[in-house]
Write a structure and sequence with these properties.
Elements (H helix, E strand, L loop, with lengths): L1 H31 L7 H19 L21
Length: 79
């Protein structure tokens, strides 16, 4: 009776054990090639680099070093 009970328990849990074995294999493979998550400063650096490339493509040449002064035309600041 005990042997039959033990066999039926093993048969009931066999699919779950197989799935867990596959999951463990997958996790072991993933752990070997897992990369460090991208940090905030990495994202900022990527953004700045992309921004510089876009700025170079859209506006080739040297950036202006002097400011531009617009005439006031007699307008108040609130207008």
């Amino acid at each position: 009776m005990r042997a039959a009970l033990q066999q039926s328990i093993q048969q009931a849990f066999a699919p779950m054990q197989e799935s867990l074995g596959k999951l463990n294999d997958t996790l072991a493979e993933g752990a070997g090639r897992q990369e460090k998550p991208e940090g905030f400063m990495d994202k900022v650096g990527k953004y700045q680099k992309g921004h510089q490339v876009a700025e170079t493509l859209l506006s080739p040449g040297q950036a202006e070093k002097t400011g531009v002064q617009a005439s006031s035309l007699g307008l108040k600041h609130s207008e």
